Amino acid sequence: MTFRVLPAIDLRHGSAVRLQEGRPESETAYSDDPVATATAFAQAGASMLHVVDLDAAFGTGDNREIIARVAAALSIPIQVGGGVRSDADVAALLDAGVHRVIVGSAAVENPDWVGSLVERHGADRIVVGIDARDGDVKTRGWLEGSSRSALEVARDMCARGATEAVYTNIANDGMLGGIDLEGTLALARDSGLRLIVSGGVGGAEDVRAAARSAGEFLSGIIVGRALYEGRLSVPEALKAAC
Fold first, then answer.
1. Could you tell me the CATH superfamily of domain 4-240?
2. I need a surface site. Which of 4, 191, 212, 225 has the fewest CB within 10 A?
3. Which of 131, 156, 173, 180 is labelled catalytic?
4. Is 10 a catalytic residue?
5. Annotation marks residue 131 as catalytic
6. Which of 210, 207, 206, 203 lies closest to 231, judged by CA?
7. What pLDDT score was predicted for residue 142?
8. What is the pLDDT of residues 192-203, one digit of tens each?
């Protein structure tokens, strides 16, 4: 199975930004031209991009016009998450040219709906987002607790037809301190979902470790701040994933 490296573009107020541990006050803006950033990642060899609409996730607006421009500018697929909570949200993103829609909070709050989305659009177009801190899955832009474990949610989604999820250990996200490889592999083995590793990539060794351990459990890794701060390039990440 293909193991993908997915450069990340987190959108807030029209710019490409990164947060630390999902905290809005920790924002660092890296580009005021997300379309140019996305194009550069694609030209560097990325086969898919990971885009998060932070404004939609936080309930402070959305960046759908920019997402549509990113999708139109690229010949590679993009997957998009953040604030996807209704049929209209899913339809708007798919109509805008998004290849895969990530459903996070709704996977916890309305699992039946996620099952219906998978049935309607196919498991290759609907990806679950599972974001946890200290064992508790967080929702609403990681601002609210759910009292549900990552394993509970993952098993629930697998039972409803989902096949793939992005798993983020929030404590690692944006910190450059390394990925939660052991926890991600355990979650994949115990749930039946294939997982995309997210959070904590600090350099090529994190990508290499995930790729070597991937097997049938991991389908890719998301790389964000390490790219923006020059710790890793897209070609270096792709080489490490081979």
1. Aldolase class I (3.20.20.70)
2. 212
3. 131
4. yes
5. yes
6. 203
7. 62
8. 999 999 999 999
